[in-house]
């Protein structure tokens, strides 16, 4: 049997169930342990996941510190609330564990820098849990964006990621808790908008950004953004805009426009359920002849043959597999922590702009 | 034979060929005369249009003043450059002619107010040439937006209208002349973005706007916007954003998002060539059960059965027909000049914000 990356899951957030399945399907990983503040909760989480997606050896329910001390664990997946994440990532790095970290990685870039530095010092991999980075759609999209005849020179990247939270969410979900998730919708959703824009721009940072909190909400006296819009000013005159919201029903579109065409992705974060991940290149042609004015649509659809979710080739499985390869390879890839840190830098600047009346804020990497 | 609205076309801009055909197909209008600075040019324009789309009685080539003095003309269509439009609209109103005016209607709202006031005083109809306002798609879209169970409460309206001008356009087209088209892409394209947002909002004005000239260009020492982005802050927390550009290839999408769903229009200005004008209501469903996370797409397509262009039921034909009905009805509809004026007010405020470093600018109707 080939060696496997032995994962510990630090917390029992719902999203960890998806990654449990991703690890199971990755082919190079096993969940060795799950930690919770109460062993009973970890036990229940394990039982429920095992009933659907069993590992041969049932993972062990443990406490947080016990998990980090375990010699049966190589890497930790950290879905803990952002507000307490730094503490545990630093402990994990100190314990020599590789870290796959949910987003937003930290409350601010200083926190993320501390995490990234700690992981580098410990020689362990750091990566944020942005699944779409691991879709086969992305290299396909890159090829199209790099094809000088398809989209041409880039001009604009725009995206929206939103869902309408229900009353229960607004009443009690940690994502509106100022202490646990101080970045609210900007951290939970805007992270994807910003990551996508940075990816399109090959991680060139914007020179400046503008942000606006359109709506905020406080459950514990510390308001968090529920709705946020921002603009990005990249070098060379490329600009971007994004909108994220807990008050607006599900949408996850992105448009990338250039001098020759545009790409539209309807579902850039979570591909629509099915057997492929797609995008469309739009190159309409306006045909004017005498009194005849016709706007012709000339879309070309590109699709990566991969499952949207829950299969061996789905993006979350690819993420677990890629992380496992890095762990097993023993040589951390510095580009992943760098991407996370840049995303947080831009996010911070957007929020700073918003807190400062929407003035343009420069970014210093 | 029923009475017909007798049109005079003031200028021979290319877009007038489309409206010639629209008038011909409207069923209640005829082109009686075409004016140009040189009679030869009007003659040639008439000959070319007649060869494709003939009127029984060949329209007369005339000079501008002659056209306005003609007792054979009830209404004028004004595709003249924005920079000289006010002068001729005021003259037309004084001559008792109804006015269908290309957009942007004026260089600023003061000009448009003067035109609108002159038309009101003369008892003639004023309307801007926004064809999409006359598509059968719009009442269908209104019905969906007003259906509390479809999109829900409005939150966000976003749109892009752009095309990449070629070197010839940038070298000599009047749309980049500061004297003739001082509003550049903001006037030529942004007018549609703003009109659509205002239409969605039932012409409630934004409380404030923000604008940014992303790129500008001067052929005559007076720079015009080539690329512009703006944000709109409506009462009740509804927000909008728009982007228009002469530097970015053809796109004309609009998204309207609410608490329950969203509407996507791919081609909100000029419907893609075909037999219908469509839009899609997006109501994705994120189904989470245990370790299974599925993002389901549940789009519903709505289409108005009408030609995109060049037929009796196309939006430009509907515009000519509706204007003809107003002329023949003898009772001007005050809502059309009001819509044009509001569009220009919002546009002015966006430009003012842009010229003032992107600060929020309030709108006073």
From TrEMBL, chains A, B:
<feature type="domain" description="Gfo/Idh/MocA-like oxidoreductase N-terminal">
    <location>
        <begin position="6"/>
        <end position="127"/>
    </location>
</feature>
<protein>
    <submittedName>
        <fullName>Glucose--fructose oxidoreductase</fullName>
        <ecNumber>1.1.99.28</ecNumber>
    </submittedName>
</protein>
<dbReference type="InterPro" id="IPR055170">
    <property type="entry name" value="GFO_IDH_MocA-like_dom"/>
</dbReference>
<feature type="domain" description="GFO/IDH/MocA-like oxidoreductase">
    <location>
        <begin position="147"/>
        <end position="263"/>
    </location>
</feature>
<dbReference type="GO" id="GO:0047061">
    <property type="term" value="F:glucose-fructose oxidoreductase activity"/>
</dbReference>
<dbReference type="GO" id="GO:0000166">
    <property type="term" value="F:nucleotide binding"/>
</dbReference>
<dbReference type="InterPro" id="IPR000683">
    <property type="entry name" value="Gfo/Idh/MocA-like_OxRdtase_N"/>
</dbReference>
<dbReference type="Pfam" id="PF22725">
    <property type="entry name" value="GFO_IDH_MocA_C3"/>
</dbReference>
<dbReference type="Pfam" id="PF01408">
    <property type="entry name" value="GFO_IDH_MocA"/>
</dbReference>
<keyword id="KW-0560">Oxidoreductase</keyword>
<dbReference type="InterPro" id="IPR036291">
    <property type="entry name" value="NAD(P)-bd_dom_sf"/>
</dbReference>
């Amino acid at each position: 049997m080939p060696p496997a990356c032995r994962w510990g899951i630090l917390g029992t957030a719902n999203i960890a169930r998806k990654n449990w399945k991703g690890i199971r399907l990755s082919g190079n990983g096993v969940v060795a342990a799950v930690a919770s503040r109460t062993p009973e909760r970890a036990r229940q989480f394990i039982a429920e996941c095992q009933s659907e997606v069993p590992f041969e050896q049932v993972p062990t329910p443990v406490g947080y510190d016990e998990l980090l001390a375990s010699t049966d664990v190589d890497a930790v997946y950290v879905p803990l609330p952002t507000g307490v994440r730094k503490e545990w990532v630093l402990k994990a790095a100190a314990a020599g564990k590789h870290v796959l970290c949910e987003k937003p990685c930290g409350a601010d870039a200083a926190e993320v820098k501390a995490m990234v530095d700690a992981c580098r010092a410990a020689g362990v991999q750091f990566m944020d849990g942005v699944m779409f980075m691991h879709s086969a759609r992305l290299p396909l999209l890159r090829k199209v964006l790099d094809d000088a005849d398809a989209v041409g020179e880039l001009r604009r990247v725009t995206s929206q990621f939103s869902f309408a939270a229900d009353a229960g969410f607004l009443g009690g979900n940690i994502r509106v808790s100022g202490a646990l998730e101080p970045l609210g919708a900007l951290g939970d959703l805007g992270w994807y908008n910003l990551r996508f824009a940075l990816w399109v721009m090959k991680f060139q940072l914007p020179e400046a950004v503008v942000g606006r909190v359109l709506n905020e909400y406080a459950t514990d006296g510390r308001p968090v953004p529920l709705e946020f819009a921002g603009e990005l000013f990249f070098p060379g005159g490329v600009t971007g805009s994004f909108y994220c919201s807990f008050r607006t029903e599900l949408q996850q579109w992105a448009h990338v426009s250039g001098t020759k065409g545009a790409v539209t992705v309807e579902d850039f974060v979570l591909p629509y359920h099915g057997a492929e991940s797609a995008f469309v290149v739009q190159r309409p042609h306006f045909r004017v002849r005498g009194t005849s004015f016709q706007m012709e649509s000339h879309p070309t659809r590109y699709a990566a043959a991969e499952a949207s979710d829950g299969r061996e080739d789905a993006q979350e499985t690819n993420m677990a597999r890629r992380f496992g390869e890095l762990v097993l390879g023993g040589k951390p890839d510095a580009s992943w922590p760098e991407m996370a840190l840049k995303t947080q830098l831009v996010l911070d600047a957007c929020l700073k702009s918003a807190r400062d009346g929407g003035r343009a804020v420069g970014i210093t990497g």
